[in-house]
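Re-run requested by the PI after the first attempt was lost when the workstation crashed. Everything re-entered from the original request form. Ligand of interest: DLZ.
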Amino acid sequence: MSRLVLILGDQLSPGIRALREADKARDIVVMAEVDGEASYVPHHPRKIAFLFAAMRKFAAELEHDGWAVRYTRLDDDGNTGSIAGELVRRAEETGAREVLATEPGEFRLIAALADCPVPVRQLEDDRFLASHAEFDRWAKGRKSLRMEYFYREMRQKTGYLMDKGEPAGGRWNYDSENRKPPPEGIDYSGPMRFTPDDTVEEVLDLVAARFPSNFGSLRPFWFATDRGQARRHLAHWIKRALPKFGDYQDAMLTGERFLYHSFIGLYMNAGLLDPREVCEAAEQAWRDGHAPLNAVEGFIRQVIGWREYIRGIYFHHGPAYLDRNALQHDRPLPPMFWGAATDMRCIAETVGQVRDEGYAHHIQRLMVTGNFALLAGLAPREVHDWYLAAFVDAYDWVMAGNTIGMTQFADGGVVASKPYVSSGNYIAKMSNYCDHCAYSVKTKTGAGACPFNLLYWAFLHRHRDRFEKNPRMAQMYATWDRMAGPKRDAILAEANGFLERMSAGERV
Ligand code: DLZ
Ligand code: SF4
């Protein structure tokens, strides 16, 4: 009796668990482009196109490798529109009575598979370095779950950047060297670009026809869509950009969408690149003397530290984590997050490049859009769904800890020890956005004052009860308290006026 082997759009790895446990001689791989997955949030058209093209190519590779594959295209007659529906249909066609699957990265889909009329065996996804049990063991009994300690365990476990049991260079973390302001010019032309082949072109036409009003530009499409291309992109980045990645990791420059960032999350999260091969290539560049330790450590920390930690948080806390709202923020997402005109240059730049590329780097995500959403009191779940939809590398498992936890503090301090808020000063220091802005970052109140400056104090004031005792925020409250009463009143009134205008749909 044959079994079905489910491969989802972000499981495009030849060594994935369900394939390893399956029998090529008798089992049948099922892959499906379905409306249920393509529409549960309004994904960026490039994300849909990337996944469908990469899925089609992966299916062809599996067939070439001798697997029997039943592949459903979005516009196929009989497409049931859901993963579970496709499993039932394929089971009826083939007589299969069981499905082997690798556990999806989203509770919604895990539940759908658990409820599927054909029994589905969900095997833990071991493309990640830390298993659920390992993370739970680490988290057990700890009062706070700080990434840094988890990261050190992952360093020891993998042996990456370790010399005789000690961290290379004598320190675990070189982040303090990775905060240089923007450089004068960038000598890296960005990620490797690939001309669409016939498979990609066909998918682009399909996506253009089926998702015409989703936020985001579909073309020019240049992403890698198979492992070979993704590996070429990785080698290119390591050669050309990794050496400077660390230094300018937090910088932002008008018109420079990628700086020295790796653009690797997209490929890793879909399974085209393996986290181990990525880290090993980066470590080799350091051992060969090609890239400095601060760059390589900073990169490896993102992959084996932050990425694994964030996934651990998702599975450790369960589905209810997504509905956390510790600060009781409930303001709807304003239209500027979907591209409506704004006078705030930093937001316009970041959202503009998300529209064009489906991508913004981590400081744009954290300190521009995330910081603004938190200061403005936007509903965390809406913020989460926005990141999930608009970013090509986003899945529930990766975004939950980043949005609900890290940027919105909606988990009440599980991920971050204090809310990541800052006034316009931080953006002015790390970018050149303020040079071309209708607002003035130096102006604290009155006409033309940067909204971040106003909202920052209003946020602290609004949440005083919760944060004033936090030792890491005492300095901020002391500064606020030293301000003259009328100035404080003016700031609060102007912040309120700004939010009201924004929520009324006015251009701000
Ligand atoms: C994101 C996505 C999209 C847009 N479309 C599909 C699809 O048609 N078929 C599929 O198997 N997977 C798709 N995915 C990825 C899934 O949504 C993803 O596997 C879950 O969100 C779990 O991470
Ligand atoms: Fe952003 Fe304020 Fe700078 Fe304008 S002045 S770019 S709103 S931080």
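Saved to the shared folder this time. Residues 8-10, 32-34, 37-38, 43, 48, 51, 83, 104-106, 109, 395-396 surround DLZ (ligand 1) (CB under 6 Å).
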